Every structure is written in C-alpha cells, then in structure tokens.
Amino acid sequence: MAEDDDRPIRVRTLFLSDLHLGTRGCQAGMLLGFLRDYDADTIYLVGDIVDGWQLKSGWYWPQAHNDVVQKLLRKVRKGTHVVYLPGNHDEFLRNYVGTTFGGIEIADTAIHESADGRRYLVIHGDQFDMVMRHQRWLAHLGDGAYTLALWLNTILNRFRRRLGLSYWSLSAWAKLKVKNAVSFIGKFEEILAEEAKRRGAQGVICGHIHHAADRSIGDLRYLNTGDWVESCTGIIEHYDGRIEVIHYPSLLRAKEAENQAQAQPQLPPGRRAVA
Ligand SMILES: [Mn+2]
C-alpha cells in the first residue's frame, strides 16, 4: 500500500543526540530529512546538540544548521514537548538546568516512562568518563568516591573550558587506541546500565560515544542514540511502547527500493525487483 510521502510519521517519543551543529561534520541535510519524516509528542535532545567547543575556535554556522534549529522550534510551537539534556560539547547549557528556553526544557537527566510502563534513564553519558577511567579504584572505594568522581569530572572540564582547553574526552582518547575501542564501548555500556539500575530504571537511553546500540545487559536494556556525524541514527518510541533504533540512511535506501518496485509491478511471481 502506498503511503502518503508528505505526511510525517507520528511517534510517541524521539531521542536524538550528538548532532554537533556548528561543526563541518554535522550531517544537517540528512537530519532535516529525518525531522521532516518524523513527528513526536516528545523529543529528547540527548546532548552534544550544538558544539560549543568547536564554535569557540571558529564560527561555522551554515543555513542548514539554522534550518535544523528552526525545524525543532517549529515542532515546539506545534505542541511537541522538547527536553534538552546537555552533553559535554554543549555543557554551557548546564548552567540553565531547570529552566525553559523558548519552550524547550533544560534538564541534566530525565526518567522517561514508556507507553508500556517501563522507566528509562535518559542521559548524555559524559558524566561517567571519569568513573570509567578509574573504575577499578572506585569499586574499592565505594559510593562516596563514585559521587566524587562524577563531581570531579564536571569541575575538571569546567576548568579546562575556562583555560580555553578542549574537553578531555575519554571516548576520543579511546578511539585513538583502536584496539581498546571495543572494550571501551563495552565498559561504557555496562556503567550506564548500572547507573540506570541505581536509579530504579529498567533501561538507559544515552549518547556520547557515537555508537548506536540496543542490547540487554543483565535485566537492563541499553540503548544508544548514535550520532548525526557518521551514522545518522536516532531512537523512536511507538505508541505501544516499542522502542527501536533507526538508521536513517538504511531507511532511505529501503524506501527507494520500494518506490522502484512499485514502479515496475509486472514482474513474474517469485522474482524480486533488485535496485
Ligand atoms: Mn559527548
């Protein structure tokens, strides 16, 4: 059945992170397409939306990046509830946690309750860089040290920012050491899942490491929104509470293949149109 292509698909919730607006890496064109294709009751912007670190070292703000912001604001005007959880690249917004900006709510973390009654911790994830680095020590030192590490992580990077240094990113550091990347990602996933458990949630939805995922860790569900620099991924929640990772480029390819198949309907049975 042919769908009306102009009408956006309405979902209950949309989770997006790591757009990195203000950098050359941001795939704003793809992102605009995605925002045109999807509408939601609630949108969580899960950090690193605007890249403040990059903008400081040279202004890069093409029209397409403006269009993304306009598109989001238009959704707010049309009734979408937008919650912005700052990450390390837009941590200047952390000074505004608890306030509302043009209808956009700024929060540090959120607990999202899905339509099927599950609770998900929504958080960017950089808050745990320090914990990850010193995980073994912290395990010995207990809960107080853990809280201290979270606090130190924030303070350290605030100072680095004042000094005009770049954010010390554990994920960037790990990516340099490619061999460690796999175990790094595994560790990040575990720590975030643990945090969700600590907060009495059944799952976590985060970003930060630019690596989309949907997997079970024990009885917890770990979801990562990925990014709009390399992978162009996001997470949607349907009205029945089903949550899934969308890889937008694959979706576009599938759509195109479908259109081509519809354009040549007289294929003999058993044969498929191959694009
Ligand atoms: Mn980040």
TrEMBL record:
Q: Please give the Gene Ontology molecular function terms for this protein.
A: hydrolase activity
What EC number(s) would the UniProt record show? 3.6.1.54
Q: Matching InterPro entries, A to Z?
A: Calcineurin-like_PHP (IPR004843), LpxH-like (IPR043461), Metallo-depent_PP-like (IPR029052)
* Stretches assigned to the Calcineurin-like phosphoesterase domain: 12-211
Keywords tagged on the record: Cell inner membrane, Cell membrane, Hydrolase, Manganese, Membrane, Metal-binding
The cross-references to SUPFAM superfamilies, in alphabetical order and at most eight, read: Metallo-dependent phosphatases
Question: Could you tell me what this protein is called?
Answer: UDP-2,3-diacylglucosamine diphosphatase
